[in-house]
Every structure is written in structure tokens, then in C-alpha cells.
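Archive entry: two folds, one per protein. Generate the first.
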Amino acid sequence: MANGEAHVLVHPVTTFRALRLDAAGGSPLRRPALLLLFLGCAVSFLASGRPSIRLIADGAQSFAFVPFCELAGLAVSLRVGRRRVPVTRAIDPFLTGNAPWLLWIVIISLASTVSRPILWTLHLFAVSGLPPAIWSAIIDFHFFREITDADSRAAVRGVLVQRAVAWSLATLYFFGIAIWPEVAGRIGW
């Protein structure tokens, strides 16, 4: 993980204050690319137990909807907030808050090298995903407090709006892709 991601895991307030003071800001593509790299590596490790350029690229391409959905949720939550922060300026600090998920991806990927991921259940993934979901929500709360100057209530609203939009879009996309062949077959396409 990058330095910002490692620091935000333990010190979200100071991390976001430092990122806010960074006048130049980060590249709006840097952290979405980092997320895609981690997702691609996870796909490679889960599928083969080792890194493979082809599987990493395929995994990153397959999960490209994840940062898109996160950023769509961010854009909506920023519009709902009182202080207008340009989305392009907020992308880099916001995606720093993916650190718990990146750590989870590393742990799942490492676990797949010593066990058989094909035997893992959806329940196991759901339960193991609860700590990073809660941890990242706390980090995102601090993002809204420090980067957008939101009070506590507005910061909670920002987290809830971002999650509602992002997770709804991701679920619709993911299950839409999975369900479409069934729907197309039933309507004769």
C-alpha cells in the first residue's frame, strides 16, 4: 500500500489534514489505478494462486466498475454537502480511504495461496468483509470532516449517501451482468 493508505489506517484525521494542505493534490487517476491493480492481483491469486500479468489485467478490467461506482457516489455526496469541493480535487484523498479494503484484498490473496479459494463460501467473504466495511466508513467520516469541513451530522450523511449510491450502482452492474444472459434468453435474444 502507498504511504497515505498505510497512515490513514491509524491516523485518518492527520492524513486528511495533510492531504488537504497539499495544494497540488494528487492525480485523480493514481488511486483508482492502485485500486484496480489490487483487484487485478486478487483475481490472479484467487484464480491461480500466483501473479499472472494476463489475469491481473483481466481482473482489473473486469472490476473497473468498482472505482467508477465509488467516484459516482463521491460526486453525489459532494453535491449534497454544504461545502463544494471539486470532485477531481477530492478523488485522491477519498480513495485513500480504501486502505482497509486494500489490506483485506492482500489478506484474501495471501490466504488463497495457502488454501483452496474454490471452497470459500459467500458467507466467509461477507463476514470477513465486515471489518474493512466498518473501518473504511470511519475513515470516510473523517474524509468528509477534514476535506469538506462537514460537521459530524453532515459527515455521516456524506458517508451514507456515498455508500448508498456506490453500492447500489455496483450491485446493479454486477448482478445486471450476471442476470442479463438469463433475461436475454427468456425474451428470445
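Generate the second and append.
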Amino acid sequence: MRRAWQTMTIVGLLVSSSAALAEGPILRFFRDVGRSTARNNAWPDPFIPDDRCAVRAPFEVMVNNGWRYNNTLSDHHFDGVGQLNEAGDRMVQTIVQQYPTGRRPVYVLRSTDPVISQARLESVYASANKY
């Protein structure tokens, strides 16, 4: 009985180890071949959306910078003490009423004097609340 048990154990170990060796590299090779074949047959379809995003990304940055530049009120929109002049008031009105909803933030160029910068912001807030 003891001899039979030892023989079955040795045979079991040999079978399991040979199955593991045969299954490992050979099975891995055939999986790689199948995956490579599927990739080659699907090419270039899986990569098109990522490529389109990569091409459009710089243009989206340019468009956002253009809107920011367009919505910025600079020195010529204010008088000397930080109050909006007529051109600045009309610009705020145009931004608030006519531009697309996502493109309505109003940017104010800072002055070298913090008091004038604060006056500019308050003037723009008052004008935007008016419309």
C-alpha cells in the first residue's frame, strides 16, 4: 500500500509539473498570437478617437485663450479712477447678454494700484448686475 501511494504521488507530481510547463510558455505564445492577430485586424479603428483628441487639444486651448482675450476689459475700458466708461459698459453688456452661456466670464486687467484694481472690479460687478 505504501509503495502504491508513493508511486501515485510521483506520477501526480510529474503529470502536474509537465502540464504546468506545457501550459505556461506554449499557452502564452498562442494567446499572444491571438491578441496580435486581433489587434492587426482591428487597426487603426481603436486608435482613431485618441488621435482625434490629441489633434483637437491644442485648438481647444487656443479657442479658450481667444475667448479670455476677448472678454478681458483693459485700460481703455476704464477712466483714470477705475470706473467703466461707455465702451466698457457696452462691452460688459455684450458679454453678459449675447455671448454663449459658457463664455460669459468677464476678465478685468489689473492696475498697478490695488485701489484702482478694486474700483475696476466693483464697477464691473455693478455693470454686470445691471444687465
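Annotation attached to the second fold: The longest helix spans residues 2-42. Strands lie at 72-73, 107-108.
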